[in-house]
Amino acid sequence: MPSSAVNRRRFLKVSFGGSAALVAAPTLVSWLGAADAKAATSLPFVDDYKTNLTTNLTPETNAVVRILGGFAQVWKTGSAWNTGTPLRPEILRANVRYSIKITKARTEAQGREAFVYDRQHQSYAMIGGLGPLAALYRTGAKAVTSITSAPDTTPATTINDAVPADAPAGSAIGAGSYTSDLGQVAKLVDTVRGPYASGNPGKYAFQYPRPWRMNEDSQVVDTGKTDALGYPVYDSKVVVVPQLLRQRSTSPVDDGGFPSGHTNAFHLASLAFAYAVPERFQELVTRALELSHTRIVAGMHSTMDVLGGRVMATALAAATLADPANADLKAAARAQALAYFTAQTGTTADTLAAYAHSDASDAYADREANRRANEPRLTYVLDRQGAKTPLTVPKGAEVLLETRQPYLTAEQRRAVLRTTALPSGYVLLDGFEQWGRLNLFAAADGFASFESDVTVTLDASKGGFHAADAWRNDIDGKGGLTKLGSGTLTLTGHNDYHGDTVVEAGTLVAGHANALGRGDVRLTGGTLRAELPVRVRGAWTQSKGATLDLPLRRDHGAVLTVSGRVTLGAGSVLSLRLDAGQPAVAGSVVPVIAARPLRGQFDKVELTGVNSDKLRAVPVYTTDGLSVRLLKR
Question: Where in the numbering of this chain does the Phosphatidic acid phosphatase type 2/haloperoxidase domain appear (predicted)?
């Protein structure tokens, strides 16, 4: 074995609760605490984020170290790089075993992919989350990379991303060129990833080793073989991707694992892009979690490292976006992205989101698949313990949803973050201000609970998400919903909120049979549209000028079932959409509303859709509902 390899394998061992582990740590700083989330010295992170410098390595002096303080409940930093102590050995054991499992199961294709995302500029890698807009972005931003594939064997030297020799003039790696058509967006990404966003202070402060420097002796068996660098090959250890062996640091003192720098960079870039291009918000969040997972697949980082990188990036992105000094830049980046993409695609602010999800080959086209992939990556090997407590949303966190839900107030966006957050009880995620509990993928789907009555105004004249949005979470809570404004809001969850649903203007769409919760429904104006049969568990009241818009098909029960009283005011309208797949025919009587009792009548019953010009609807009222008889015109 080469002498350099011998030197690099001289590690001390610490017990992980019954078996030994090889440990490395990156500095000689002595720091024994910082787990207490109630540290009296702490300012809100967004007001203190510029303290994240390598000259500040304690929770009292560094805001990032402070918000990562939950890790100090798991790992006690030593006074030297090789003297740390596991405080929760069962978690750290699971952490190493997970890395062993993932790297042993890794396919060659996964290994090659992990190499690409290790060496490629992280901001460039995140462009893939833009889906159908990605190629347009690369062209408009003049963003390029020299890392597009992995070599077949271990490279002889370190490989870094660079502008290819044949790239167009003015091209840049990462998010692109500042002088390009998307220069403000590129600048926003770089600003979010600015001088206070490094993971190095955290690495030096916590001194937690990378997984390939830790292998449990009880599971390690020497095969008698050596790898490309002359290291012994074990049948059970964290196996680094062969192409990355010479890309690793040879100085364990300067090469801590927690938090993962690549993970931090992926999430920072994703949230900057998501601010500028909120039409791809959830897909960008999903890609950041996916690319962060490749750090574990590569053998370069553990789950603890990746979780730490996500936590710090979430807070750092919020702090940078909330900083008044960046207000003009973030507004310019959003405006520039919208103008560029609508011009390139022939869309408008109202139709860009549909275009951004129009490619069936998009790797992130399946929202439900994205959700399933994301959920385990938010907690990895952590087990939840203790009672559930509501999240106090960190100051400034609401800025992360500012362009995704622009029609909500800042306090409403905070409520969205609070009601969609992960439950308490996950060590590490429960650090100071609990940034790790934010679930941004879920938050993009709106409220998960109406803690009190919610009034929302969507203004169609402003376009984009102001004009139309969908809340896809299952909503509970004691409050209700009042819909104002000319825009359209769609509820697709199985909702169980107890308050009333009130439509005063615009359109509210029920996209689930139980979308309207448990309370009464009152239409005082605007339109309530159902996409499928819907149930109202309270009473129904409809006033003059309000429209009920329902689908109508043959061989189907009532489209609207109301448990309480139905009261129809003079001037109310019923609009029935004839179903093209199962069209009702002339002479048929189709049930529309089932209720007991029903009082009043619609002022107008109209037909829309296929063959609506050939049929007319004659309402048939009874004390317990309404049907329509279809007749030829």
Answer: 184-321
